[in-house]
Amino acid sequence: xxxxxxxxxxxxxxxxxDPIESLIxxxxxxxxxxxxxxEVFTPPKAPSGSQSSSIPPDEKVWVIYIHGGAYRDPTIxxxxxxxxxxxxYPSLSPPTSSAHNLATTPHIASIASLSYRLSPHPSxxxxxxxxxxxxxxxxxxxxxxxxDILLALSHLQKTYAFGNRYILIGxxxxxxxxYQVGMRCSIPWELGKQGKREVEVKQPLAIVGVEGIYDVPxxxxxxxxxxxxxxxxxxALGEDEGVWKxxxxxxxxxxxxxxxxxxxxxxxxxxxxxxxxxxVHSRGDExxxxxxxxxxxxxxxKKEGEDEGKRGEDGIEYRFIxxxxxxxxxxxxxxxxxxxxxxxxxxxxxMMGWGR
Length: 356
What we know:
This protein is an alpha/beta fold. It is built from ten helices and eight strands. The radius of gyration is 19 Å and the shape is globular.
């Protein structure tokens, strides 16, 4: 979420030929800014007779990742999904990678990572135009970030035709944005400079928030003595406290998610399909407080006495997964994030009844 000094961030593996890099393609979904693109990794075609080759395409899901970085850190990009890929696909990765062999990997069709416009960062100033072309400026303000996520998802769905067969997973503010997609149908996020045209987005089977911010005002209250929190919020979301509340998924309520998310997922009958809401957090996270987990649980958990991990009558299942590591380690080391992806893919496969 926040911006650690570069020397404090986890070190990245040394540069060696990486087979996975050759399987990643880059695609632009809009042309206003150089950051409006996504990257797609598609694993090689499985050998005939293998487990993966026997799985029908309509029983595979896309995994779509949204990076964090406090809406503004230009060093945390869509390419930060590389450690996740190394952990999920060890046979394609350098020997130094942290592998995590998963039985659910064959059910993954492709993995995409979304880039979006960023807000200004005081540690990475940019010269004013014309020195910096307008298309390269990092000047995004809400709702630019969520608009780009919706544009990217719409472009992906039109290009690859996977509908709602996808899991949306975000880290830090990426988790905030992921759950905002679940709020999309009832809240008409403004389209900013994209004008009034409609954006067609089919919502996911599962949303996964990792080390996420779900209640912005409560985060600011808990960190009121730390200036950097208010600085990045105001830089990205503006000064209006009503906006801070409006973008906070924990304030949307379970009933809100039923209306705006669950009822818009293709299901077995009227009223929408079954969906999975996941919150992931580490007790070692030094930047995003554990209270954010409690905030989102208060929104998503069913009434008292009902078990976590059991689907409610409203079609939403809430699940919490605890991981290990500091804030940036959860994505930079790959292994824990891969474990989460594997568990959620497996749950979705069971939820959809695939392979039966």
